[in-house]
Amino acid sequence: MRSEFRLPDVGEGLTEAEIVRWHVKVGDSVKVNQTIVEIETAKAIVELPCPFEGVVAGLMVDEGQTVDVGTPIIAVDTEEEAPPGPADDGRAARAEDLVPTPPAEGAVEPGVHGSPAPKEQRQPVLVGYGVKMDATKRRPRKPAQQPPAGNHAPEPRPSQVIPSQASPPLTAGETHVAERGTRADVLAKPPVRKLAKDLGVDLTALTGTGPHGTITRDDVHAAADQPPPAVRPAVRGQEERVPIKGVRRATAQAMVASAFTAPHVTEFLQVDVTETVQAVRRLRAMPDYAEIKVSPLLLLAKALLVAARRYPMANSTWDEEAQEIVVKHYVNLGIAAATPRGLLVPNIKNADSLSLRDLAQALAALAETARAGKTQPADMAGGTITITNVGVFGVDTGTPIINPGEVAILALGQIRDLPWVVDGQVVPRSVCTLALSFDHRVIDGELGSLLLRDVGAMLEDPLRTLAWS
After folding, report:
1. The whole model's pTM is what?
2. Nearest by Cα to 114 from 139, 85, 135, 89
3. Does residue 193 share a domain with residue 168?
4. Cα separation of 109 and 117, whole Å?
5. Domain that includes residue 208, residue range
6. How many distinct structural domains can be found in the chain?
7. For each successive 10 residues of the chain (469 residues), what is the average pLDDT?
8. 129 secondary structure, DSSP code
9. Residues assigned a catalytic role
10. 275 and 394 within one domain
11. 3-class secondary structure, 221
12. CATH code (residue 10)
């Protein structure tokens, strides 16, 4: 029989996601828990496993298309026959639909249209909190244009078809893969696909020069650099419109909410970090740190963790509803990371309990995961205080916006050799500028100044970090 798998909610009340890349095509055999697709939500890129076994009959959503939670995205032919049961009401998948429990004899697999699951396949395949149908609010969509009188309304797109509507089974010729020229069959990695999408290059028209015909970035750039056909007139002042979705939209909403909710104050401090730079060199030479990336960011992170313990109010949350300040006696240290998908702020859980070596490993793992686009929603939840390293872009400092739910963020500027007065003599020293933004509802000027001063003092003399720990 033919079964449809609907897009689940893989986060906390997410309502939609973008199909980034299919890992299967029509005719492929799939097994339970086999990764079939990558989706991008407002928080992260997530790999979805298949909840049943069979043969792919149709990919019902194109790559690059954004669909609502509960929309059928793939059809799979299974060998089992479904017993008669109640009609699907077309609602979005819930958490209990995605984490199966032992059913009664002959019961139908929840969340999968018309698909029974044998007992030996009953295992959790997806985890999500589900969408609260009575509480979820979505931005209004533009109303569809009404057809002229006497004309028939256009046929709905596959992503608009209600699952409970009766429809003839899909055939290979009716699948979206066939309609779009087998785009899913193109051998190209997700970053290359995104580059092609941004540059307007049709991957199906390219011949890959990589291993096994894989399309590379160079192939895409070469196609984008080709002159347009002679029949296409040159147009001046062309514009490019980039859809606001996924991480970009979530970041924009969070930053606007933070900037217009928390009264921001930013203070700056120029610091002689010569001793920190020397300490970094000494750590890199130690055998215990030979395989670990050590940078000034590591010692700044350690200094901020110590300062947060000395001034707990800086590691808190403003609870508007309860009219309380929630002081956290643990530190989930957020690190702002610039990725191809936009700004992410994953955090290191209980960073204050880690040794310097463990903290270095956690920072390296966090950066690697973010660059690979594998940061998960749980990695970005629960942060308590954040660092943003603008120095890597050659910037001296900035006025960072506080991460929502927190009350302080510290920016590290680039380290430069500047003339500095030491013991009455002007000498070259390694200098950087720190910028601390804080929520003035929680942190007043004195507390913010003390916190910033102590972090600067620990960077001037890393021995203070050990003394104050």
Report:
1. 0.56
2. 85
3. no
4. 6
5. 186-228
6. 3
7. 85 75 91 88 79 90 86 86 45 40 41 43 41 45 47 44 40 38 64 78 84 82 66 60 75 81 93 97 94 94 97 95 94 91 90 96 93 85 95 94 94 96 95 97 96 98 95
8. -
9. 440
10. yes
11. helix
12. 2.40.50.100
